[in-house]
Amino acid sequence: MQHFFVAGIDTNAGKTIVSAILTEALQADYWKPVQAGETDNTDTMKVQALVANTTSKFHKETFLLSRPMSPHIAAAKDHVTINLSDIIIPDTQNNLIVEGAGGLLVPLNNDEFVIDLAKKLDIPVILVSRHYLGSINHTLLSALALKQKNIKVAGIIFNGEEIEGTEEIILAHTGYTCLGHVYEEEFFDRETISRYATEFSKTLNHGA
To answer: Is the pTM of this model over 0.90?
Structure first.
């Protein structure tokens, strides 16, 4: 079985689309432990709508917070506390894609961050880096944080149209494997996700 934690270099890196592609590519289960806001259109709902296979199961969030804010604030406003000890990987015999919330240093409570959740779950991270001016800095800082926490990284996925020289320097300084690219699309539907999943399945299954 392959389990991956999908992390982003920032909130808008494209984790949910990448998670849908990976879920379809591996016919994996999907789980987002912490969802803040969009309770009527959660990331779980979005991924489920984009995945065509009938094997994947979609596990309930451990914390479903009502406001689209940093989880530590959203939780406080909902009068709950996010404790990492309450976040337990679902019991499944299938591959599993776990989607983080925001970037790696998004706080879950006053002391712990998304990166601490990744460390606690102890599954390899796939880092999603979206191309924009400043993404080199954000990607290398994310990689440095993962290294400091001694978290295994399965590879990196680049999202968007490449900015010249960006990928080369990121790969050179992180040593990460590039697992693939997701490009700008007019829209993402099941057909688009399936097309990307076919390509990603070759890379992921080759590395299994």
So the answer is: yes
Predicted confidence (pLDDT) per residue in 70-91, tens digit? 999 999 999 999 999 999 999 9
Structure tokens at 73: 């604030």
> Is 46 a known active-site residue?
no
Nearest 5°: phi and psi at 95?
Answer: -60, 155
Cα→Cα distances 105→23, 47, 144, 163, Å = 24, 23, 12, 25
State the catalytic residue, choosing from 15, 32, 152, 202: 32
SS3 at position 129: strand
Q: Is 177 left (phi over 0), alpha (psi -120 to 50) or beta?
A: beta
According to the model, what pLDDT value does residue 73 have? Answer: 97
Instruction: Compute the CA torsion angle 176, 1, 54, 66 (nearest 10 deg).
Output: -70
Q: Are 14 and 161 in contact (CB under 8 A)?
A: no
What are the chain's domains? Answer: 3-206 (3.40.50.300)
SS3 call for 142? helix
Distance in angstroms (rounded) separating the CA atoms of residues 56 and 71: 27
Residue 192 is classified by DSSP as H
Which among 120, 84, 90, 88 has a CA at the least distance from the CA of 28?
Answer: 90
